[in-house]
């Protein structure tokens, strides 16, 4: 069990450091604008990679590229719960009703 935890931590570190150009930390308001602009575009899909250390990780996938967004859990709620994983078969394909954006004073 300890080895699995260490492996998970190392995987997250490698994931974050080797994809710096693909990982964008942003506010819930910024992500909501991206989500609203692209949600009805059939060429794009959104995948929930899970939650880790107070952040949601969401992959925006286009046919020729992808971007991973890191958004604080205090700014939005993902209705389907998932602990962060790099295992693609566990990722959740997000639909319109799966995200609730919280209204914050600074947003």
Biggest β-sheet strands, sense, barrel: 5 strands, mixed
Shape call:
globular
Mean of residue pLDDT values = 85
Q: Please tell me how large the radius of gyration is.
A: 14 Å
Low-pLDDT windows of residues: none
Number of helices: 2
Strand order of the largest sheet: 1-4-3-2-6
Explained architecture:
The protein is an alpha+beta fold. The chain is built from 2 helices and 7 strands; from the N terminus they run H-E-H-E-E-E-E-E-E. The protein has helices spanning 2-18, 28-38, and strands at 23-26, 45-52, 55-61, 66-72, 76-78, 92-93, 99-101. The strands form 2 sheets. It has a 5-stranded mixed beta sheet. The mean pLDDT is 85.
Q: Which labels suit this protein?
A:
single chain; 107 residues; alpha+beta; five-stranded mixed β-sheet; two-stranded antiparallel sheet; 7 strands; globular
How would you summarize this macromolecular structure in one to three sentences?
The chain is an alpha+beta fold and 107 residues long.
Layout of helices and strands:
Blueprint: H1 2-18, E1 23-26, H2 28-38, E2 45-52, E3 55-61, E4 66-72, E5 76-78, E6 92-93, E7 99-101
């Amino acid at each position: 069990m300890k080895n699995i935890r260490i492996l998970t931590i190392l995987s997250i570190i490698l994931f974050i450091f080797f994809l710096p150009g693909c990982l964008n930390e942003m506010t819930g308001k910024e992500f909501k604008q991206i989500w609203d602009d692209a949600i009805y575009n059939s060429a794009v899909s959104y995948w929930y990679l899970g939650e880790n250390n107070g952040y949601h990780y969401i992959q925006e996938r286009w046919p020729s590229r992808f971007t991973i967004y890191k958004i604080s859990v205090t700014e939005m709620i993902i209705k389907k719960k998932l602990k962060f994983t790099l295992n693609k078969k566990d990722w959740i394909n997000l639909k319109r009703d799966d995200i609730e954006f919280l209204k914050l004073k600074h947003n």
